[in-house]
Specification:
Structural class: mainly beta
CATH superfamily of the largest domain: Exo-inulinase, domain 1
Number of domains: 2
CATH topology of the largest domain: Jelly Rolls
CATH class of the largest domain: Mainly Beta
Shape: globular
Distance between the termini: 56 Å
Mean pLDDT: 92
Low-confidence stretches: 1-6
Radius of gyration: 28 Å
Largest sheet: 8 strands, antiparallel
Bound molecules: magnesium ion
Helix content: 10-25%
Number of strands: 15
């Protein structure tokens, strides 16, 4: 420590001057740091290289392909876990209403999902009975247990708006109706954040979903209130990683088809 032997007034002056120069130095250091662009640049870790698909909608290099048009090897019947019995023909799978819902063998938590569907050109029916299916973003049990993103023909078909295509069934009205005509292939691109539960089963953080329908944003980081239900209010029930389920809806209209399904766990 430096001992300063001088009258107190002088000491005050010296200390003030030291303080002044220290202040100037600090300001200059701050200015220098603002000038140094490297201080705000991050160089590691480097994001992994993912080769995008050749065309929009094609699976990128790190995707898990759930259906490539050849077979249903990645899918099982929800009812009993046996081999999925929907119809695969000419590169597409078509709902088999007689046998019921199918789901992935593998379970997932957070993910990016791409899926394409086609309402038959000769679709008949109205309201909820016109090309009804659905994508359960996490299947939590038999039947329709889980969180359903609605699939329905609403090109020229009215129904309750929280049950039309692009809705999180009876929870979130889509931000737009981006339907293509029956007979045309349509896309869903979905970002799903799974709900998190405490060890006692209570909810720690809700599920969230963002959905693009035919490239149009229809759900924007929507926070789910619980599992989607036909009757009654939604509620959460604790679960872990879950399969993705496709709905064989019981309406009498012509069955719809799916193709090009892939997922990127996040
Ligand atoms: Mg449905």
């Amino acid at each position: 420590m430096i001992q300063i032997a001088c009258p107190s007034a002088t000491r005050v002056l010296i200390l003030s001057a030291m303080g002044f120069f220290a202040g100037v130095t600090a300001v200059r250091a701050q200015a220098d740091s603002l000038d140094d662009h490297k201080l705000t640049e991050i160089y590691s870790p480097v994001p992994p290289v993912v080769t995008p698909g050749a065309q929009a909608g094609d699976a990128p290099s790190d995707a898990v392909v759930l259906f490539d048009g050849k077979n249903l090897d990645k899918w099982v019947m929800v009812s009993d876990g046996s081999a999925a019995k929907w119809i695969v023909d000419n590169g597409v799978m078509t709902v088999n209403k007689k046998v019921g819902n199918i789901q992935t063998k593998e379970s997932f938590s957070n993910y990016q999902l791409h899926i394409e569907y086609r309402i038959p050109a000769n679709i008949t029916g109205s309201d909820q009975a016109r090309g009804n299916s659905g994508i359960f973003l996490a299947s939590t049990g038999k039947g329709d247990d889980g969180y359903e993103l609605q699939v329905l023909d609403n090109y020229n078909n009215k129904t309750y708006v929280n049950g039309q295509v692009g809705s999180i069934y009876k929870q979130a009205v889509p931000l737009a109706n981006a339907c293509r005509k029956p007979g045309e292939w349509q896309t869903y691109d979905i970002i799903w954040t799974a709900p998190v539960f405490h060890t006692d089963g209570s909810l720690a953080s809700p599920a969230k979903v963002t959905v693009l329908h035919n490239g149009v944003l229809v759900e924007n980081d929507f926070e789910l209130k619980g599992q989607t239900r036909y009757r009654g209010k939604p509620y959460y029930k604790a679960h872990g990683p879950s399969p993705i389920k496709l709905q064989a809806h019981g309406d009498p209209s012509e069955p719809i088809s799916y193709r090009n399904i892939w997922i990127r766990p996040l």
